[in-house]
Design a protein that fits this description.
38% of the residues lie in helices and 22% in strands. The protein is built from 5 helices and 7 strands. Helix 2 packs parallel to helix 5. The longest helix has 19 residues.
């Protein structure tokens, strides 16, 4: 299981356009908020995505990128982004390899944990949040990410 201080495993997955994207490419000046979620168009997942959408601009101003990962395919992600006007990429992990690598696969492969990682520009995990049914915690986590990164740079 990954922990704070570990190096985030690099990976490559297709985004909503079918373009392969690696974590090392997605890490920006200050880092990335990488969130895992169970499924497009479900109640809590939609709420989580929309809450992150609502703070996206302030995160982007701080050089933080938001990226979501779930097991749905590229077509599903494209529709989900369009319907909810999401300004960030969603990656398709249809075989759940990255989901498992990040410790987000439920026992027996029966689902995906709602987990968010703050990864800095050196690919180090700076914080982790697991909150399966509380989407609002993920927005608060994202808002606090820039403060945490600033503290770690001191």
């Amino acid at each position: 299981m990954l922990a704070i201080g570990d190096t985030a495993p690099d990976f490559s997955l297709p985004d909503q356009h079918g373009t392969q994207r690696s974590l090392s490419e997605l890490v920006t000046t200050n880092g990335v908020i990488l969130y895992f979620y169970p499924a497009d168009f479900t109640l809590v997942c939609t709420r989580q995505a929309c809450l992150l959408r609502d703070v996206h601009e302030e995160l982007a101003e701080e050089g933080l990128k938001v990226v979501g990962v779930s097991p749905q395919d590229v077509n599903s992600h494209t529709k989900f982004i369009a319907r909810h006007k999401l300004p960030f990429d969603l990656l398709a992990d249809t075989d759940k390899q990255v989901i498992e690598q990040y410790g987000c696969l439920l026992p027996l492969g029966l689902g995906v944990r709602r987990r968010t990682f703050l990864i800095d520009n050196a690919m180090q995990i700076r914080d982790i949040l697991t909150a399966d049914l509380r989407a609002g915690r993920h927005q608060k986590f994202a808002r606090n990410a820039r403060t945490l990164l600033a503290e770690n740079q001191d």
